[in-house]
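Aim 2, interim progress. The first record below pairs a target sequence with its structure tokens.
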Amino acid sequence: MNVHDDNSRAIRRILMAAGAVVLTLTAFFLAARILINTVFARQLENGTPAPAAEEALTILNVPEGYVPFYNAGNAYYKREQYDLAIDRYQRALDCHPSDGRECPIRVNLALAMIHKIDFENLNSDKKIDQAIQQLRSARLVLTEEGCAAPEGPDGHDPEAQKLREEIDELIKQLEQMKQNQDQNQDEEEQQQEEQQQNQEQSDRSKTSREREIERELKEQKQQSMQEQQDAQREKDRREAGEGDGYEYGDRNW
């Protein structure tokens, strides 16, 4: 046996040993990953676990790299941190999940998008339009890969199909709400216009009446002054007449 053969066998032994180490580490990593995901899933069912464990798994994102993003998204969703949930669900979709795994991610993504809508504060056309746009975006998430049918009942995922139908109903309700608000606003504007016209008419009538009262008072004042002047002249005449009688009456003729 020559030196070359010895070296070849040594290299093969080293490679086999290295391969065994790699396989052992890989098996250990996969086992740890499966254990973490299993524990996390149980915690998720029973409460609101912190997403830190799943976030750590996203660093070594193999295999089925979408799983930690999906699990982290679920954790953020249960904590009502919908922006973070949406980000993780989208990143899960970017990992191209296997067949049958994509639709649950899309359903949860659409739900997180819907939860961002403040349905109790839709008090203007602008807010209603924004809500409708958000619903349409969530609808597109469900339909763009066929999890739900764009129209009709032919989506291949029942939950996605049901959610799409519920979104369609919400959109109809919001459009009706907007129409009712516009109608009420038109009626209010018409009432305000009528009130303004009535007020202006009342003001004109009031002004006209005030002028009439002022004219009557002026006439009464003039009449009173005239009566006072007439009475004074009459008094003056009487006094003048009585004075003449007294002056000549005392004379001796």
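The second target in this work package is listed in the same format:
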Amino acid sequence: MTFADFQMTAELRTAPEAVRRQEERLLSSVIAALVERLRRKPPQVVVTCARGSSAHAATFGKHLIERYLGIVVAAVAPSITTIYHRRLSMNGQFFLAISQSGKSCDLIEQAVAARQSGAVTACITNDAKSELARSCEFVLPMEAGPELSIPATKTFIASLSVLARLTALWAEHEALANALRRLPDRLAASSELDWSNLVGVLTRAESLITIGRGPTLAIAREAALKLKETSRLHAEAFSAAEFQHGPIALVSSNYPIVIFTPTDAAAAGTNQLALNLKAKGAALFATGSNDAPPGQLETLAPDQPETDAICQIQSFYGMVVRLAAARGINVDEPLHLQKITRTR
């Protein structure tokens, strides 16, 4: 099979239109109603609840909300409610669940409990008629359309753009709102960037590290997950700061490191880490201009930090399909995985 033959390829290429649909359809009015509610009585804490790729989207949301609104964001462990039967006090707070299918039992039960406790509840989902959607007061649809490939691509990107739209309106951040209007075209351009220099190295690898910071930490985490799902390749994600507190001992010439460099104030420290790792002999690959070929990963010119980060994962997804093929794996049929995972 060629790159174009995979379902995952077809779906990642439709991500730009999914993001464009969000702008054109009813999403803005739904978000406006939610924002009006949150402004009327601002929460002290935003509580997120998600699994898998959606949990990485929640990490992206944490950065956005803390960065632009100054409100603490914390991830809740559904098992406290579903397994240990302890109700959490969320009265007056904002509970946000993220799920592509809206069918995971633990997220649904936690959403019901949060609403009963007095939280403002919302979910980001690709199925506006799902049980999770029915359990929340506000439903923010991804507008991604059907996603048939098991590894999530366009729904992950769509969830990131929903989070960015929510933040832009809530924080009245015009630069972010304008960047989101440019995002569909930038995603399409990102799909065409060449990250093939990674394929040869990762085809032979047994393990690697992904690194990000600020808006790209969620991208690094999603990249590590996709490498496991699609190529059966162990990958572990760290923030650029966290990596220096112990994991840096792993650095060697045969242990690849992929850095997703942010385009905001976190870039300086991340670039310095890249230089330090090169000096230690790391097999380093990085986005942006902090490295020279063959280790540089091609990116678009910077536009806005959060949407730049979204474009980086779009380029990575295209590389992943080629990597899996080089490793003899069909990305549309990952081992032991299914599209909907029901946990409790």
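The longest strand covers residues 45-50. This observation will shape the mutagenesis plan for the next reporting period.
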